């Protein structure tokens, strides 16, 4: 019953938002695809399972794809509105989970990089203060993204919140890369997918914003 009530509230908000925009069905479908991909990506990287429900997100995606191909206006509008409400509901739930994951990543990175810095200062002949400063800059960026993500969630912008948690985790993991240390196993897949492709570019200069990708 709580799920139904929460979904109806989300659907009402989404419907009102869409009604106040001039997005075409093509633009709405593109946005839907980007958002559902983000949800699937996060779930896969952190081995998160979808809660049991009548309609899985995979089936919602399939129904939306079918309605878009058929291009029958009434059916497409109904299907798109329901699908947008469904993924917004899931994004809200996932944002709460990502808050915990991101905060844990940040706290872990703070503790482990501090320990690594103390060790490297003594043991590594090639150690420079610039490595320490760069690692700490990434942690500062991670903290800022976490704070922004919480504010986005509170304002009802759940997809932006997910993107910001994604960036926060990436920054936390970049702080490990600077010091050549491995994160916990929980974050290693995310490090490979989100961070490794950025590393060569980021390692050539100072820490830069992932918003600039």
Describe this structure in words.
There is one protein chain. By secondary structure, the chain is mainly alpha-helical. The protein starts with a helix and ends in an 11-residue tail after the last helix. It is built from 7 helices and no strands. The longest helix is centred in the middle third of the chain and has 51 residues, at 73-123.
Brief digest:
It is built from seven helices and no strands.
State mean pLDDT (0 to 100 scale): 86
User: Helical element count?
Assistant: 7
Radius of gyration: 20 Å
Helices and strands, in N-to-C order?
A: HHHHHHH
Structural class: mainly alpha
Percent range for β-strand residues: under 5%
What fraction, in percent, of the residue positions are helical? over 70%
- Tell me the overall shape: elongated
Poorly predicted regions:
15-20
Task: Tell me the distance between the termini.
Answer: 41 Å
Count of strand segments: 0
Largest sheet properties: none
Give the SSE map:
Blueprint: H1 2-19, H2 25-45, H3 57-70, H4 73-123, H5 129-154, H6 158-178, H7 185-202
Helix pairs in contact: 1-4, 2-3, 2-4, 2-6, 3-4, 4-5, 4-6, 5-6, 6-7
Describe this protein with a few key phrases.
single chain, 213 residues, mainly alpha, 79% helix
